[in-house]
Amino acid sequence: MPSDTLTPATPPTSSYRALLGNREFAGLYAGFTLTVAATTLSGFALGTLVNQQTRSPFLTAVSMYGATFAMVLGALTLMSVADGKRPRRTLVALQCVSLAGVAAQAVPGLPLAVRFGLLLVLGFFQSLGTGTRMGLLAEVVPTTSYALARSLMNITSGGTAILGYAIGALLLRHLSPQGVFVVATALTALGLVAVATTVRERSIRLTRRPGLRQTWTTNTALFSHPGRRALLLNLWVPNGLIVGCEALFISYDPEQAGVLLAAGSAGMLLGDLAVGRLLTADRRHRYAFVLRLLLAVPYLVFAFHPPTPVAMAAVFVAGAGFAATLPLQEQLLALTPDPVRGQVQGVESAGRMTWQGIGAAIAGGLAQYLSPHTVIAALAAASIAVTVLSRPHVLRAGAARSENPLTSRLLNP
């Protein structure tokens, strides 16, 4: 029977198998995995559809990541619902909205304007769903296992994306994009069932009622802290610019785009596995800067329009650099009071996804006038510059603690 009270803390876990032995985490994990699979398939199908109809690098890039633009709206308006008294009910309702949106994309002959409108609606509700899911995750697993849990989710996201792009390319040889949308709808429905049947209701003990005012109050406190700002900048901008590079793969090489996307996802999987499972927290923080550089440096080779095997190798190596998010997320969690973890993690995720959309839009816009390989190299250089110039601020953030005056502002606005 659902309960509004918190259960005793779960003992720390030191392996992925132990994490999956936690029924609630297994449910969140399964729902997350199926959602990623559905998003990958639907994004690839929509990008292919738009490219076929418009031949526009800008519209193709935006169609693949367009939902991320609306995520910032969720972060700025209603993200405090992620810390409401009934997060399970909220998550299930948001999953239902996602199901309806993906199913609508499967309607044949839908105008592109309507499809882009659906992307924005889905992005808004997906941002709230991510915040709610991560708030629940922070309660379902102990703090000492949080990095391990996020690592497993990131690894699964990379592995699922590899399969999603490969299977998506295969399906599109035999099905129309609308047929692929139907498959994505079925996966979304299964994710909804996984969450609804495994996750219990629990209270995150918010001191104020969720809503626009609570969201703005917490966000103001979040962004007024220089350490948190530096962490968010590094979680958002370098990643977003590199995702902009990935958004040009279809325009760069339509025949090999699926292979390049899969290579990036494979590198991400390997990086998250190594960083989350094999490194201690201290080593993760020590190597965070190198990983952020690794994320972008290999893409500089695109300036020379390399052959496909070289491009695949560069994208694979760079994908490992996405693991830099793990130590940065750990630092952000350490600076976040418990009652607003869901909102803060939701803002972090929404901002990161929004910057992916911004990166895709920048890349697509530049590719209207410059060659795709030139734009890819330029965005990689910009990502490196942001990482290097912001490093001193990130180092100072690492010395900060959650016991600071802003904590009381977050808890008692």
Structure description:
With 413 residues, this protein is mostly helical. The protein has helices at residues 16-20, 23-54, 57-65, 67-77, 87-105, 112-140, 146-171, 177-198, 212-223, 226-247, 249-252, 257-278, 281-294, 308-319, 325-334, 341-367, 372-398, 405-411. Helix 4 packs antiparallel against helix 16 (341-367). Residues 1-12 and 401-413 have low confidence and may be disordered.
Concise synopsis of the structure shown:
This protein is mostly helical. 75% of the residues lie in helices and 0% in strands.
What key phrases describe this protein's structure?
413 residues; mainly alpha; 0% strand; disordered N terminus; disordered C terminus
Question: How are the elements arranged and paired?
Answer:
Layout: H1 16-20, H2 23-54, H3 57-65, H4 67-77, H5 87-105, H6 112-140, H7 146-171, H8 177-198, H9 212-223, H10 226-247, H11 249-252, H12 257-278, H13 281-294, H14 308-319, H15 325-334, H16 341-367, H17 372-398, H18 405-411
Give average pLDDT, whole number.
Answer: 80
For the report, how would you describe the main beta sheet?
none
**Low-pLDDT ranges:** 1-12, 401-413
Order of helices and strands: HHHHHHHHHHHHHHHHHH
Distance between the termini: 33 Å
Backbone shape: globular
Q: What's the total number of strands?
A: 0
Indicate the percent of residues in helices. Answer: over 70%
- Counted by DSSP, the helix tally is 18
Using only C-alpha atoms, the radius of gyration works out to 20 Å
β content, as a range?
under 5%
Helix-strand category: mainly alpha
